[in-house]
Amino acid sequence: MLVAKRLQKELVKLNEHTPPGITIVSTENFQEWLMDIEVLDGNPLYQGEKYRLKFVFSGSYPIEPPEVTFVKDATHPIPMHPHIYSNGIICLDLLDRQGWSPVHNVESVCMSLQSMLTGNTKNERPPGDDDFVRRNTQRPRDISFLFHDNSV
Amino acid sequence: MNMDSDEEFNSNSNVDMSSDEGFLDQDMESDVSLGDDYELEASDDEEPDIGFDTQDKDVKPRKEAYQVDFQVLSPADIQASQDEQIDEVSAILGQPPQNSAILLRYARWNKERLIEAYMDKQDEVLEAAGLGSVATEQPPRFERVPNFMCDICCEEGDQLDTFAMKCGHRFCADCYTHYLVSKITDEGEAARIKCPGDGCNRIVDSKSLDFLVPPAVKGRYRELLTRTYVDDKENLRWCPAPNCEFAVDCPVKRKELFRIVPTVMCECKHTFCFGCSLADHLPAPCVLVKKWLKKCEDDSETANWISANTKECPRCHSTIEKNGGCNHMTCRKCRHEFCWMCMGVWAEHGTSWYNCNRFEERSGAEARDAQARSRQSLERYLHYYNRYANHEQSAKLDKDIYIKTERKMTQLQSASGMSWIEVQFLEQASQALQQCRQTLKWTYAFAYYLKRNNLTEIFEDNQKDLELSVENLSEMFEKPTDQLQGKKVEIMDRTSYCNKRRIILLNDTAENLKKGVWEFNVEMTG
Ligand SMILES: [Zn+2]
Ligand SMILES: [Zn+2]
Ligand SMILES: [Zn+2]
Ligand SMILES: [Zn+2]
Predict the structure, then answer these.
(1) Which residues form the UBC core domain (chain A) (predicted)?
(2) Strand-pair category, A32-37 with A51-56
(3) Does B388 lie in the same domain as B362?
(4) Ligand 3 mean position to B291 CA, how many Å?
C-alpha cells in the first residue's frame, strides 16, 4: 500500500529533522495526523500562538492531496487569514486536486501554510465567512474554491 | 443515425469542423468554417433544395422557421468522425495516425489552425503536443538511473524502473502508473493530464500513457478522450438526458444564440436546446432563459404564494382544488365558470377584447411615485411568473391525468376488445399538451423581457390563441373515460389545431428574432 509506505518514510524523515516552528503532535495511524505550526517571523497577527493542523489521508495519498484543516481547541485558535474560514477550512490551491502534486508531503504543506501566514497582513476572514460556516456541511475536498488571488 | 420524422433531416454528412477556441494563443478570426453549405442552412431564410435522399422526394418535410438543422450521432459515429479527421490530418502532415491524434487533441480538434500552425512552426507544435524530437525518435521506455530516489513513494535504488517525459521529472514506474490510473479512473481526466512534477505543465501524451497504464484502464481512457472530443467541438454537444450516449451535431454558433434558439431532438427523444443544454425553451433565447431562471430563483419567496393548488371561487368563495391541467374551472357549488390564471369569467376568454395573457401597464398618475412603481414592477413580474409557473404545473397535472386515463383505457380495451392503435390518439394529444405548455411557459418568460412595439400585439394574439387551443384540448381529458372513444375525432382535431398554433407562434417569434426586430428591456448579453 503506497499510503502506508510513503507516510512511514515521511515519519522517519520528520523524526530525524523537523523544520523550525513545526511539531509532530500525533501520528498513530496512516489515516490521520495532527501537526502544530507556529509563525516565527514575529508577524503580530500570529505572535505567540500555536495552530493545530489535522491531516486526513485517503487511500490514494500522495496521488491525491490530504484533507488539511485547522482545528480549534482551548489552546489552539484558528488563525486569522483571508483564505482561512473560521471553521478551519483552508482555501489553498496546493490542497486542491488541480494544484496538488504527489511530490508534496506533510512537511511541505506545513511549510506552505507557515509562509502563507507569514506573508499576511490582513486581519480578516474570507468574504462570506459567516454564510459559508453556517451552511457548510461539506468536506473540504468536495468544495471547489476559486483561486483567483494567490498573492495573499 | 436516426431522426424524428417531423424534423427535417439533412443527409449531407459534411461535418462542420470549425471551432471558436483560441489555438496557440493566436487571436484569429473565429469564423473558419469548412461546412459552409451546412452552416448557411441555419441562417438562410429560404433553402428550396437541400439534399434529401431521392426516395424521400414526395414526402419532403418543410423546415419551419424555428427549426434548425442537426444530426444525431451515436458513439460509433463519433468515433468514425474522429478517425476520419485523424486520417485526413495524417495525409496532410505526413505523420502516422497515432501522432496526428495527439496533435489534434492538443489543438482541441481545430484542424485548420493545427495545419496552419504546423506548417508555420513544425518543431514548436510537435514539442508542445508532447511529440518533441526525442518522443518521435524513440518510443517511451523505462530507464534505470544511478542514485535514484522517487519523490512520490520515497523508494530509492539503482535497480528501480523509472520514467520521465521530456520535462525530465522522473518517478518510479509504479508511481507514474499509479498517478495516471488515478487521474483517469478517479478524476476522469484524459487528454490533458499533467506531469506529476510540482508546477510542471507538461501534458502526458497518449504514447506515454499507452505505455504506462494497464489495458483495463485504456478503455476508460478512450471513452474520456471521446468526451473531450465532443466538449472541444463547438458543433457537437452531448444529449443531457441521463445515461444517454448520443451527441448532436448542429452548426449554430455561440454568437448566433441571440438570433436563433437551436432546439434539437436526440435519438432518445429528449428535446433540448443545443445552445445551453436545457430542456426545450422555445421561443425564448438562451440568454433570456438564463436571466429568467436566475430571477425566479432570487425572487422565489415573493412568488411562493402562487404555488398554492387551491383557490376560492370568485363568485361563491367555496374552496376549489385544481386536479387537472385545464385552466377552465367550473365551481362545483355555484357552477360559475372562470379562468384559473386570471380568475376572470371564462366566457370572455374567447372574445378578442379580453386579455388574460397580457399585462396591462397602468399609466399616468397611478404609477408616478416610487412605491407605486415598485409595486407595479412586482405585479408585472408576478403576472408573467404566475402564468409561467401555472403552465409548468398544468403540464404535470395533464400528464398525471393522461397516465390515469391511459390505465383506464387499457382496462376498457381489454374488456371491449378494442385494438391498441385506437387509443394512440390519446397519447398524441397528451404529447401535444406537454409540448404546447412547455412553449407557453417560455412565452411568458419571453414576454416579461419584451419591450412593447408594433410586433408584440401579434405575439400576444398568437400566445392567446395557443393558450385557448391548449385549454380546449386539456379539458377533453377531464371527460369520463368511457366517453373518450366517442370523442376521438374531436380530440384529434383539437390536437392538430394545438400543434398548428404552436408552429405559428414559434415561426413568428423565430423570424423576428432572426431579423433582430424584437426589442428587449434587458441587455442581451450573457
Ligand atoms: Zn515511486
Ligand atoms: Zn514534468
Ligand atoms: Zn438522448
Ligand atoms: Zn438554450
Answers:
(1) 2-152
(2) antiparallel
(3) no
(4) 26
Q: Tell me the C-alpha distance between B191 and B140, whole Å.
A: 18
Query: Is B12 a member of any domain?
Result: no
Q: What are the residues whose beta carbons fall under 8 Å from the beta carbon of A140, sequence distance 6 or more?
A: A67, A68, A69, A89, A90, A95
Domain that holds residue A99: 2-124
Q: How far is B107 from chain A (nearest CA, A)?
A: 21
Q: pLDDT category, B361, cuts 50, 70, 90?
A: low
**pLDDT profile of chain A (152 residues), mean per 10:** 88 93 93 95 91 94 94 94 92 86 94 94 88 68 52 44
pTM (predicted TM-score) = 0.65
Round to whole Å and give the CA distance between B107 and B124.
13
DSSP string for residues in B428-482: HHHHHHHHHHHHHHHHHHHHHHBPP-TTHHHHHHHHHHHHHHHHHHHGGGGS-HH
Which residues of A are less than 8 Å from B187 in CB distance? 97
Cis check for the bond before A140: say yes or no (omega within 30 of 0).
no
Q: Which letter, b or e, does each residue of B419-430 get, where b requires 16 or more Cβ atoms within 10 Å of its Cβ?
A: eeeebebbeebb
> Which CATH number covers residue A107?
3.10.110.10
Residue B240: is the preceding peptide bond cis (ω within 30°)? no
Known active-site residue A91: yes
State whether the Cα torsion B508-B512-B514-B520 is positive or negative: negative
Are A103 and B151 a contacting pair at CB < 8 A?
Answer: yes
Instruction: List the domain range (segments joined by +) for residue B437.
Output: 382-515
Q: How far is B314 from chain A (nearest CA, A)?
A: 43
User: Given B213, B239, B254, which residue is the final one in a domain?
Assistant: B213
Check A22, A91, A110, A113 and give the catalytic one: A91
d(CA B133, CA B123): 8
- Tens of pLDDT, residues B94-111: 988 878 988 898 899 999
Asked whether B153 and B132 are in contact (CB, 8 A), the reply is no
